[in-house]
Amino acid sequence: MADEPLDASPAAATPDAPAVSAPAPVPASARAAVASPVLRPRRESFEHGLLPIPKLVIPEGTLTQTLGQLKGKLAASGSGRVGAAALAEALQIPAEQAALALGTLAAVLPGDDDPALAAGEADLRDVLLFLYIQSYKRLVPRAHKDSPSVADVWPSTSAFDGYLSALSPIQLVRSNSRRFMPSQADEEAHQLSYLQKHMANILTLLADSVDGEGDESMVLTMETFEHLGFLLQFSEGTPLSQAAPFFANSDPDMPAAPVPATQIHDWILQNIASSLEYTAEKSTTKENSQQNVSDPDVTMADAGTNTRIHSSSSTGASVQNSPGYYRNTSFVEAISKTSVVKKGSDIKGHSMKVLNCHDSVIYILAPLKYATVYGCSDTTVVFGAVGKVVKVEHCERVQIIAASKRICIANCRECIFYLGVNQQPLIVGDNHKLQSCIARFGGI
Fold first, then answer.
1. What residues does 410 pair with on adjacent strands?
2. Are 122 and 99 in contact (CB under 8 A)?
3. For residues 231 and 129, is the Cβ–Cβ distance under 8 A?
4. Residue 303: what are its φ and ψ, rounded to 5°?
5. Taking a C-beta distance cutoff of 8 angstroms, is the pair 195, 232 a contact?
6. Using an 8 Å Cβ cutoff, are 317 and 311 in contact?
7. Taking each helix axis from N to C terminus, what angle separates 63-74 and 84-91, rounded to the nearest 10 degrees?
8. What superkingdom heads the lineage (predicted)?
9. Which helix (H) or strand (E) element contains residue 142?
10. Taking the CB of the first residue and of the last residue of the chain, which one, N or C, has fewer CB atoms within 10 A?
11. pLDDT tens digits for 303-319?
């Protein structure tokens, strides 16, 4: 769908044309929300960066203390880098799990891969952020009276069900409970709320201690602040350091002075609160505009579109339609008994989601960084090339043909995988009768 301006200028009135009444004034808060970039969580970190390794999931009550002690151990080398051996020793986990954790971190880091990651090392600050969000719990489906309980549905509960829903694809289709699954906006708001709650502890982990009293004793350099880009980003692609008033327009040859962690904390919380308010306002507007309209399934005519169906009314536009809000993600959703081909010209951004498709063949013939296949059945999905991660969740009798650095398979049944991957596949949750033909390539 081509980008269009939010507000098209009305044609000037002519003597032969009736005058056009002026539009209703837009509230100042709405104008500010549209004009200012929206702070968003990096979905890749939360969607592809969680691992079902018990030793990595630290109880929330001891999270900050445990990671603080871990930081002290890992920082002892003085290099600022962390290798698999050091991480395994510090966390008391097998070396294979430590290598898996660092490999997963490499796959969800923003930007190009750090060359040091090829040697199996990562920046200590990134490792701490990665370990911190392992405590995040995914938003569960909204309850409704016709929905079966978790105990009544396939697959059975497992240790990984804290992150994944327990509904099978067939039950999702038959009960139509996908309408009650959290929307993209719901999940982002949940992730932002998690960061809002934990940001003080996160900044404490990253901050350096300097001579001073009280709030002035903990500071962050611009380089450390930029590592928060692992968790947060602006909708318009503005780097965090350029958006922050205390680091904006800094001379690379003369880095800005460190800033108190409390000042950074206040600025981040202010932006998170504005983003949550913006999302809530847009969601309320959408619900009000569609209160008398049912939620139709995606029709065959819409099968070739890149986004979900949204209200076309300018006053009812959802937050998903704001410029840049989801421009990094394209969708193929609710396709049944048909074939879909997506080429490079059809896809915007670097991420693709194939959701709730049945008895279809889907070709994604464009390079991507991230890809998700969720809730599909009796479907073949072909990915041309995925630079980071392919994630397949809650699928039945699905065939996946993909070339990717790595793949995560969770809670799938009777699926076949034809893969060219750099890393060993990660298979988690409750899986049954999986088959695979895998070609392994070297490198990370």
1. 393, 428
2. no
3. yes
4. -65, -25
5. yes
6. yes
7. 140
8. Eukaryota
9. none
10. N
11. 333 333 232 222 223 33
